[in-house]
Specification:
Length: 409
């Protein structure tokens, strides 16, 4: 009614569809009954067609259509829709343990996910893909989470759209999108300029949004590697995985820019290359909070200075600080502060408590400032010099658990 005839459909207090519609006429008719009956006459065949498709489609279970997918080409170099559903089901099942979901449900949903494309209803009304899959799966007695996943696989359908609510739907949507990304990149058809015929930019952002906003503990690099392993044709898996990973990171950059995060914050985290989008998100938010602290600017400048000094250092630095070589009071105080800080914050880093850890690290500001004010790092005594460099490296490494602070402007 809405899409084809531009009628207003009517719902009750519970948003359930009623057998009524409203239409607008731009003439003052002398016989409104004829206008009404004419509109009813137009919509009746459409509804009759839909009812016929509904009854016809339900006579064949979705699962009985799986083999028919072998006759539909997805992309000539990437095989049929049957090949695609096999890959999606394998990937969804493989990712399930990471989020504590049932691999069997994910695999089943993957096998059925494209079957409704072969139904009469979706053939006539393509915008109902997934939605009809859910209804037909429920009619066939499939698990409710499997049925909902058939609809949720296409979420988010557009910018700002809602995300899949069920674990199986989340897995199916991610697997569907990652399979497309890896496959299309592997045959050299990555998006370029404004050309994106397979909507890969939307797929990339959709997968990232699900992982981050649904708080899923999924390693993106590992998931992409699994997706690549499901393809039969020859390509260098590591190269394609890397290309897709950084393509997705560029979408992630835009995602955070829209939320108001500065690009240097994003770069500081990306330099550390966290492969779990949820972990990336926690690091970025922690770094944004750290930046608001009064100590942040001084520590960022110090880290930049340390990074430059370490870059010019020659030879390997000692793994441990030799306390016997600590001469000035400022370096002794810094060594003591670093040792105490490592005990306090390293456990927090392991737990992903980045904001709390960075807040504690802010206490290093004074000992670091005093070190640079009072100590000559590049002294002529090689042993003392290397010991001081090793101390600075320990300071630098503490912050590297979260981001590369030297990238902050």
């Amino acid at each position: 009614m809405k899409g084809h005839q531009k009628y207003f459909h009517v719902v009750d207090d519970h948003q359930q569809l009623l057998p009524h519609f409203i239409t607008i006429s731009n003439i003052d008719s002398r016989d409104p009954q004829q206008v009404r009956e004419g509109n009813e006459r137009v919509i009746t065949p459409r509804l009759s067609d839909a009812e016929f498709f509904w009854n016809q489609d339900r006579s064949t279970p979705l699962a009985a259509r799986i083999d028919d997918l072998k006759q539909v080409v997805f992309q000539k170099q990437l095989g049929t829709l049957y090949d695609r559903t096999k890959r999606i089901s394998q990937l969804a099942a493989a990712l399930a343990p990471a989020i504590g979901s049932d691999p069997a449900l994910a695999e089943r949903a993957g096998l059925l996910c494209k079957c409704d494309l072969l139904t009469e209803m979706v053939g006539e009304f393509p915008e109902l893909q997934g939605i009809m899959g859910r209804y037909y799966a429920l009619h066939d007695g499939e698990d409710e989470q499997v049925a909902r996943a058939l609809d949720e696989q296409y979420m988010p359908r557009f910018a700002g759209d809602r995300l899949p609510a069920t674990p199986t739907g989340q897995l199916l949507s991610i697997a569907d999108k990652l399979d497309s990304l890896v496959g299309i990149f592997s045959i050299g058809q990555a998006p370029s300029g404004d050309k994106d015929p397979f909507a890969l930019r939307r797929a990339a952002l959709g997968a990232l949004r699900i992982i981050i906003e649904c708080n899923l503990d999924i390693d993106l690099e590992e998931a992409l590697s699994r997706a690549a392993g499901n393809y039969a044709h020859n390509f260098v898996h590591s190269e394609i995985t890397e290309q897709v990973f950084y393509f997705m990171m560029e979408r992630l950059r835009g995602y955070y820019q829209e939320q108001g995060y500065a690009s240097d914050l994003f770069e500081a985290v990306l330099t550390r290359r966290p492969t779990r989008p949820g972990d990336f998100d926690r690091r970025l938010r922690a770094l944004a909070a750290f930046r608001r602290l009064p100590e942040a600017e001084s520590l960022a400048a110090a880290n930049k200075r340390i990074a430059n000094i370490l870059r010019k250092a020659e030879g390997e630095l000692p793994q441990q600080i030799d306390r016997a070589l600590l001469q000035d009071e400022a370096e002794k105080q810094l060594a003591k502060a670093v040792a105490e800080m490592e005990e306090r914050v390293v456990p927090l880093f392991r737990q992903g408590e980045y904001e709390q850890a960075l807040t504690r690290l802010a206490a290093l500001r004074n000992p670091v400032d005093e070190f640079f004010d009072q100590v000559l790092v590049m002294t002529e005594d090689a042993a003392v010099r290397n010991n001081r460099l090793a101390l600075l490296e320990r300071v630098h490494n503490l912050f590297l658990h979260v981001a590369e602070l030297s990238r902050l402007q």
